[in-house]
């Protein structure tokens, strides 16, 4: 069990990351709020508690690596990297602009980004390759890959899942952001993939499902995953799309939506109130 003080710090960090994402989207511009906000807790846990990462030496060969396979949610990863001091905070106001560092999808020009994952379904393949490389070099680095539930319809992802099981890749932990909504509607209505936990088990993975907004349960699941040997692990994060902004929760409009002045002000107020309650 992690002590309450640590849990409180990570909860506050997750709320700050959401506030940073909101700042990046701003008023009158489309931005991926929904799928970024559903990842706030796992991103906070990985970057600020779990991963071996030196913010003063982001290329340290001993580092763990995080790949955001659902690359359209890059804003939440940028928020964490900014909080780590990887680039100036002013960059948050220049996101997706020609004169800014931060692009709409992860790019290797951004400090702390480990792979370009602009096309869905590729992150797990890259992660498996990295994990196998580290194993060949007899290194203990761990690979983390975050996927979306809409992404589960991508064929390359399942090829990577089979390869990870075949090669007994146990230095990789994957996460599935099960927020149940994708760009054009509810995932079960767009491309139904039932029994995801059973599917992944049938591919030879160890699988556990947890509340993706519960810091303690996320940490416990990651600790458990690292005890599994000779096979990869998947942690299904049961999450809410648009988490912590009432009108955006479970609303497909905010997969890549636009905030008006009034809705932006309401979102800021709601996030601020929730952070005060932590």
What does the secondary structure layout of this molecule look like, with pairings?
Elements: H1 4-25, E1 30-31, H2 33-37, H3 40-50, E2 65-68, H4 74-83, H5 123-136, E3 143-148, H6 155-166, E4 172-178, E5 181-182, E6 185-186, H7 187-190, H8 196-202, E7 206-211, H9 215-225, E8 233-238, E9 257-258, H10 261-277
Parallel strand pairs: 2-3, 3-4, 4-8, 7-8
Antiparallel strand pairs: 1-9, 5-6
Task: Provide the descriptors you would attach to this structure in a database record.
five-stranded parallel beta sheet, single chain, 10 helices, alpha/beta, 9 strands, two-stranded antiparallel ribbon, globular, Rossmann fold, 278 residues
Q: How many strands in all? A: 9
The largest sheet, given as strand count, sense and whether it forms a barrel, is: 5 strands, parallel
CATH architecture: 3-Layer(aba) Sandwich
| Low-pLDDT runs | none
Domain tally: 1
Strand portion: 5-15%
**Highest CATH level, the class:** Alpha Beta
Overall average pLDDT: 96
Order of helices and strands: HEHHEHHEHEEEHHEHEEH
Class computed from helices, strands and strand pairing: alpha/beta
CATH topology: Rossmann fold
Cα distance spanning the termini: 19 Å
Percent range for helical residues? 40-55%
Q: Quick one: overall form? A: globular
Rg calculated over all Cα atoms: 18 Å
CATH superfamily: Thiamin diphosphate (ThDP)-binding fold, Pyr/PP domains
Number of helices: 10
Structure summary:
It contains ten helices and nine strands. The chain has helices at residues 4-25, 33-37, 40-50, 74-83, 123-136, 155-166, 187-190, 196-202, 215-225, 261-277, and strands at residues 30-31, 65-68, 143-148, 172-178, 181-182, 185-186, 206-211, 233-238, 257-258.
């Amino acid at each position: 069990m992690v002590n309450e003080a640590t849990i409180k710090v990570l909860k506050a960090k997750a709320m700050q990351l959401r506030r940073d994402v909101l700042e990046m989207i701003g008023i009158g511009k489309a931005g991926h709020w929904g799928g970024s906000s559903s990842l706030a807790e796992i991103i906070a846990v990985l970057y600020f508690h779990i991963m071996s990462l030196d913010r003063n030496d982001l290329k340290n060969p001993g580092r763990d690596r995080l790949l955001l396979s659902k690359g359209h949610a890059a804003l939440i990863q940028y928020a964490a990297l900014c909080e780590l001091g990887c680039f100036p905070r002013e960059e948050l106001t220049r996101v997706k602009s020609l004169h800014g560092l931060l692009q709409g999808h992860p790019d290797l020009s951004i400090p702390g980004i480990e792979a370009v994952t602009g096309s869905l379904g590729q992150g797990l393949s890259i992660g498996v390759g990295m994990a196998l490389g580290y194993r060949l070099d007899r290194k203990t680095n761990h690979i983390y890959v975050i996927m979306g539930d809409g992404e589960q319809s991508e064929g390359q992802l399942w090829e990577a899942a089979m390869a990870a099981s075949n090669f007994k890749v146990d230095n990789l932990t994957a996460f599935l952001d099960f927020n149940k909504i994708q760009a054009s509607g509810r995932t079960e209505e767009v491309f139904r993939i039932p029994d995801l936990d059973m599917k992944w088990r049938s591919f030879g993975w160890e699988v556990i499902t947890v509340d993706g907004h519960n810091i303690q349960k996320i940490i416990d699941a990651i600790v458990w995953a690292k005890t599994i040997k000779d096979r990869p692990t998947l942690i299904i994060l049961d999450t809410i799309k648009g988490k912590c902004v009432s009108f955006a929760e479970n609303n497909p409009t905010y997969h890549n939506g636009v905030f008006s002045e009034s809705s932006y002000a309401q979102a800021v107020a709601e996030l601020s109130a929730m952070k005060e309650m932590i």
